[in-house]
Every structure is written in structure tokens, then in C-alpha cells.
Amino acid sequence: MKYALNIGLILVITLLTLHFIFKEQELHEIIRDLSCADTGWIALGACAAVFFVAGESSIIHYMLRVLEQKTSFLKCLKYSFIGFFFSYITPSSTGGQPMQMYHMKKDKIKIGYSTLIMLLITIAYKSVLVLMALGFLIFNYDVVALYAEDMKWLIVLGFVLNLSFIAALLLIFIKPIWARALGIKVVYFLTKIRIMKRKNKEKYTEKLIRICDTYAMGADYIKKNLSVVFNVFLITVVQRICLFSITWIVYRAYGLNNTSFIDILTLQIMIGVAVEMLPLPGAAGISEGCFLLAFTEIFGLDLVKPALLMSRGLNFYFILLLGAAVTFAVHITNMKNDKNLIE
């Protein structure tokens, strides 16, 4: 029910956003503008979206091989599509990894292995985003100042949230006992001021201790296997570039070439760091608003709205629909297998 409500919320926000953006245009005009895009470039954009998902699958497959677990790449691709589906429909992308670990467990992958893999993916995914954002902000600041001035405070908030998350991970790695004690105090404070229910205090505390212990074990693995971590980070960089390059592909699909790949990539990374940690399923609504703020001058008034539909359609809704299809197919298969076991 919670997931269904989140999907409903995404649909409502999306419909309201599109109504607000396209309220002065007729449907046939929107379709005409969309059809102007070169289908070859759009197909390339769809491939980039799939490669983005496959990037995580490559990490899972690589890590399982390192851990001497024989699993096919197709199964890893299944885990990734399921993960992105649930990440896209939950606030701050919190629902994906638990579902991935559940399906790995169904395939007889030890929970310790899946936890370690998800931990490494989380660290790499967030760290690479922040490092890329800082790098492009420093070396391409003029472009950010020119096109993203209106969303500067949202970018600042994004940096604060992402850096706070990474700092918390580092604290757990370096001082796990301190992190556990601090976390318990935070839980006590939040229950005291009734943000968390007092009757759930012990449950939250036990969950926090489990997380800290898991991260402490992960930290020990990372210290002993830096080459593996480096490879994971490298794959994550390629994965991130695949996703962020979709806007440039849409730009080229409309026959535009006045703005460089690096400039468009820079702005899309800024949008990524601004919206990814916000507590909205799929960052619906805010992502579209940021796109219009950053890319109106680049695409022009006539093309920025269809470009928004095309870009958001490829880097979010296309992946969401594929993930939903894979999740549904896996669920049906699991139901049949469970039924056969009972019989």
C-alpha cells in the first residue's frame, strides 16, 4: 500500500507539473514538438538509460565474482532494475537496496555479501556524485553561474545533504563506537520530542546498532581491498556519465550544437546533486523545475519544454517502466515457484 501510494503521488505531482508547464499549449502542438526530435538520437538516449542501469549490474556482478559467488549478469541486471524501480518510488531513494537484498537472498546469495555490495554501491554512488559536482563546479563555474544562478540555494542544500550523508558514513567507518553512541542519542532525542514514536524506540535503536555493525564490517573490507573499491568507483563514474549525458543526447536530437557536451553535463550534474537527497519519490516536480531553470536559454523557449519531456522521460520514466515490468515478471515467477514448492 505504501509503494502504491508513492506511485500515485509521483503520478499526481507529474500531472500537476505537466499541466502547469504546458497549460498554454494544445496536445497536438506538444506531439508535434516531440516528433521533431531525431529518432536515432532518442534511441541512443534509451541505450544510455539502459547502460546506466547496467552499470550497477556490472558492479554487482564484479563484486559477486570477487566474493567467489557464481551469478549470471542477467540476474544482476534483474537486481538493478528492481532496485531502481523501488528507489524511484520511495523518498530519498531509500526503498531500492532492501528489495535488491531480498531478491539476492531468494537466489541464495548470503545476506552478508549482499549487504557489503549494497554498502559499496551506496558509498560510490553518493561520493562520485559529490566529487563530480565539486570538480565541474570548480572548473566550469562560469557555466553554473550563468545558467544555474536561480537554483543556487537548492544546489547548496544538495551539497549539504550529500556531504552530511557521506560524513556520517565516514564517522561509522573511522569511529563505529562513536557513531553508534551518537545515533542512539539522536534516536532518544527524536522520540523525546515525539518525531519518532516512543513505543518504537527499542526497534529504532536495534536497527541503528545493526546498521553501524554492518558498516563497520564493510569498512574493514574496504581497508583491505582498496583496488576493488577503486574499480567500483571507476564503474560508477561511467554509470553516472551515462545518465547525465541523456540531456546532451536530447539536445543533439533537436539538431542543436551551440553548447558543448561538458557544459550540459555540468548543469545536469548540478541538478542531480540538488534533487537526489530530497524526500520526494523520484524527485518528481522539483527535477522538472530545475531543468527549466537551467536549460531554457540553452534549448530556447520553443524547445525547452519538449526537451524536458524527452529528457525526463528517458532518464526517469523509461527506467521506471522497465523496472516495473521486470519487478512484476519476477514477482509472478516467484509466486509460481513458491506454489510449485507447496504442491
Q: Could you please describe the fold and organization of this structure?
A:
The chain is mainly α and 343 residues long. The protein is 82% helix and 0% strand. The chain has 15 helices and no strands. It has helices at 2-22, 27-35, 39-66, 73-88, 96-106, 111-139, 141-147, 152-174, 176-192, 201-224, 226-244, 246-253, 261-275, 286-299, 304-342. The longest helix is centred in the last third of the chain and has 39 residues, at 304-342. The two termini are 29 Å apart.
Give structural attributes.
15 helices, mainly alpha, 343 residues, globular, 82% helix
Low-pLDDT stretches: none
State the helix count.
Answer: 15
For the biggest sheet, the summary is:
none
Instruction: Give the % helix.
Output: over 70%
Describe the oligomeric state of these chains in a short phrase. single chain
N→C terminal distance: 29 Å
Mean pLDDT: 81
H and E order: HHHHHHHHHHHHHHH
Q: Rg from C-alpha positions?
A: 21 Å
Kindly estimate the percentage of residues that lie in beta strands according to DSSP. Answer: under 5%
Q: Label the overall shape.
A: globular
The computed structural class is mainly alpha
Q: Could you give the count of β-strands?
A: 0
Please render the helix and strand layout as text.
Blueprint: H1 2-22, H2 27-35, H3 39-66, H4 73-88, H5 96-106, H6 111-139, H7 141-147, H8 152-174, H9 176-192, H10 201-224, H11 226-244, H12 246-253, H13 261-275, H14 286-299, H15 304-342
Helix pairs in contact: 3-4, 3-6, 3-11, 3-12, 3-15, 4-5, 4-15, 5-6, 6-8, 6-10, 6-11, 6-13, 8-9, 8-10, 8-13, 9-10, 12-15, 13-14, 14-15
